[in-house]
Write a structure and sequence with these properties.
By secondary structure, the chain is of the alpha+beta class. The chain folds into three domains: 30-159, no CATH class; 193-277 and 313-360 and 527-579, no CATH class; 373-518, no CATH class. The protein has helices at 9-14, 72-80, 98-107, 158-170, 173-183, 191-227, 280-285, 288-291, 293-306, 320-330, 332-336, 351-358, 373-390, 409-424, 435-456, 462-465, 478-485, 501-510, 514-518, 527-539, 548-564, 568-575, 582-603, 605-629; strands at residues 33-34, 40-41, 62-66, 87-88, 93-97, 116-121, 131-136, 142-146, 237-247, 256-263, 269-276, 338-345, 368-371. Strands 1-2-8-7-6-4 form a six-stranded antiparallel beta sheet. It has a five-stranded mixed beta sheet with strand order 11-10-9-12-13, with helices on both faces. Strands 3-5 form a two-stranded antiparallel ribbon. Strand 9 (237-247) and strand 10 form a beta hairpin. Helix 4 crosses helix 6 (191-227). It is elongated and about 105 Å long. The N and C termini lie far apart (88 Å).
């Protein structure tokens, strides 16, 4: 029509149009044909996004592949070739499915006088998955392919699910994954798509964790059956467990906490619970509470009824450990047909008292408390540090409590270590010691603890100073060894002045009572709980806030790794539809082997002695620096 304004391609694109309009296509363009391998091939040019194949069932591993052309000749050719609107030469890096790439290169058509040009359809990206095609510069024949396959459910791309799992497992989260994509100039998921993947992954992880907990209970039952032939598959078993809680934030103000129950006999986790006082949706709805009360009431009720609310605990952060213990003890019969009749705890909370008072197993069933000797040992150090910090001014001898030859940090650590050895070296190896064995162990512990006090205080008469130390050639007291062997290797060092006897004696008496030492007879520790706690916070770091779903994932995967090692990652990825190839499985096995070798090495007596001496040397050097430099830092003192 004369005078009609020419239609603008760019105007249509601003309105949201994607691709090439139909009026600008050539008459000989045809649809793409897809072969059995999932690689799209066409014999004449086309630009329709609908023709790109979306589903391919390819099992391959991923590789970070740069997609920029290297030679100037190819680059010039790409610039001269016709490119569809919305398509461009890919830049940066892509995570590429190598099997798809190999099949594409094998089936790509190229004329003898032409060259292959790699292009990307930017309008149909899906997170980290890109849609690419190879085009012959001469005849314009294209071969379409995606950089990633879809997983079994058909709703997610393999590369996206693996990327989100890695972000969760490594603890970097969405922001870390986004930073990775920025550095490598690669596409990334948006925040909404990321958290949709989180929910799908969490569902798969929860199922696998429940299976692992059930299998751990079965393995414990088989272990106890091998020790007692009267036990059957349906017997209610009384088992000993170690219990501890951990929080997502330091300072006892955390909104999230986790508690674990670990078998003392098998050393495997049996159950866990995540306690949350925070829900992101509830926090968002709180903003409508004053502005639109009716909307708040309606949506809040719907949210609570849907079962998606993450809040499952109300109370102080300190009481999370107590509430978690009550939940785990009350469901132990239903979950494993076990009764947790022995609790190894650190004594930091009233979890044992609350569980005992709840009478969860009925009348006549008592729950015994055993203290972790590692935490009991720390009590000595804490009491001595409190004594040093609260004792102001000078003592009766006219000198302060600290300083060279006094109660320094290295001296405190040395006394704490020797106090722990006095307990550990007299524990009973039997899991069910008799009353006579208990009384003998408590007597020997108390005698060694008081001998440590007398050994530490300098006396003019060495016979009085070392009268409680064990005698003989194998005594830990060098003065007593010299006396037995007839040598003179004893040197009066690391001893405190006699004025400290009256200061330290009340502490040593309080930490050597029958009630306390009776709970240390079997020599149980919470090292397993501390280990699994560290695995949780490796996945969600304490210095940044993580929601209940992320903490739930971290706790569940920590149990899987704690019970089954790193190799269980392959099983978990298989359950999510993202299989692991053989070389990766071998690398996981090597990680487990290396971890076991390191653990065996650290448990050796020689390595323990080396670490103890290194710690003492470090503390002594720090005390020497402080004495030389004087007061250089103190809150509000300068």
């Amino acid at each position: 029509m004369p005078g009609k304004k020419e239609r603008s391609l760019y105007k249509r694109k601003r309105k949201g149009f994607r691709g090439i309009p139909s009026w600008s296509r050539t008459h000989d363009e045809e649809r793409v044909n897809t072969n059995e391998s999932g690689v799209g091939i066409q014999t004449t040019p086309t630009t329709s996004n609908k023709d790109v194949p979306s589903k391919r069932k390819l099992d391959a591993h991923l590789l970070t592949t740069p997609l920029t052309t290297s030679t100037s000749g190819k680059k010039k050719c790409i610039e001269q070739c016709h490119m569809d609107k919305g398509d461009e030469a890919p830049k940066g890096y892509r995570l590429m499915d190598m099997k798809t790439l190999g099949q594409t290169l094998a089936m790509t058509h190229k004329c003898s006088e032409g060259m292959l040009i790699l292009k990307e359809e930017c309008n149909i990206r899906s997170g980290m998955k890109s849609a690419l095609y190879m085009e012959c510069s001469s005849c314009k024949v294209r071969t379409y392919f995606d950089t990633s396959d879809t997983v079994n459910d058909g709703k997610s791309n393999d590369v996206n699910r693996r990327a989100v799992f890695f972000a969760l497992e490594s603890g970097i989260g969405f922001n870390g994954l986004e930073k990775f994509s920025i550095v490598f100039n690669s596409p990334n998921l948006n925040r909404v798509a990321y958290y949709k993947q989180v929910q799908r992954i969490l569902s798969a992880v929860t199922i696998e964790t429940e299976k692992e907990l059930q299998e751990a209970g079965i393995r414990l039952r088989h272990l106890l059956k091998s020790q007692d032939c009267r036990i059957t598959d349906t017997s209610v078993l009384d088992v000993a467990v170690s219990f501890d809680g951990t929080w997502a934030k330091r300072g006892h103000t955390s909104l999230l906490g986790v508690v674990f129950v670990i078998s003392v006999d098998s050393g495997e986790a049996l159950d866990f619970e995540v306690l949350s006082k925070h829900c992101k949706v509830c926090s968002h709805l709180e903003s409508y509470k004053t502005k639109d009360p009716e909307r708040f009431s309606t949506e809040f009720d719907e949210h609570k009824k849907s079962g998606d609310c993450k809040i499952n605990y109300e109370g102080s952060s300190n009481a999370m450990e107590v509430r978690g213990a009550l939940r785990l003890w009350h469901r132990s019969l239903q979950k494993h047909n076990f009764r947790y009749t022995v609790m190894v705890s650190d004594g930091d909370s009233k979890a044992h008292r609350s569980v005992s008072d709840s009478n969860c197993y009925g009348d006549g069933v008592t729950i015994e408390k055993i203290d972790c000797i590692g935490h009991v040992q720390k009590r000595m150090g804490k009491r001595l540090l409190n004594l040093k910090s609260t004792t102001k001014g000078k003592l009766k001898d006219g000198k302060p409590i600290g300083g060279k030859g006094r109660l320094t940090e290295s001296a405190i650590k040395r006394l704490q270590r020797y106090y722990g050895l006095a307990i550990r070296q007299n524990t009973v190896r039997s899991s069910n010691p008799t009353n006579a064995e208990r009384q003998l162990a408590v007597y020997q512990m108390r005698r060694n603890i008081m001998a440590l006090l007398s050994h530490t205080i300098c006396r003019d008469d060495l016979t009085i100073q070392h009268r409680y130390c064990p005698t003989g050639r194998k005594s830990w007291c060098s003065w007593q060894r010299d006396k037995a062997i007839g040598t003179s290797s004893f040197v009066a060092k690391d001893c405190l002045p006699e004025i400290f006897m009256d200061l330290l004696k009340p502490i040593f008496i309080d930490l050597s009572t029958d009630e306390l030492l009776q709970r240390c007879v079997v020599g149980a520790t919470q090292n397993a709980n501390e280990s699994i706690n560290s695995l949780v916070w490796q996945r969600c770091q304490k210095q940044k806030f993580n929601g209940a779903s992320i903490v739930q994932f971290a706790a569940a995967t920590a149990i899987l790794q704690f019970n089954g090692g790193s190799s269980v990652t392959a099983k978990l990825l298989d359950s999510m539809g993202t299989p692991v190839i053989t070389p990766s499985k071998k690398r996981l096995s090597r990680r487990d082997k290396h971890r076991i070798n390191q653990a065996v090495k650290k448990r050796s007596g020689k390595e323990k002695m080396r670490r103890a001496l290194a710690q003492q040397l470090k503390a002594a050097k720090e005390d020497a620096y402080k004495e030389k430099e004087g007061a250089s830092y103190a809150g509000g003192s300068f």
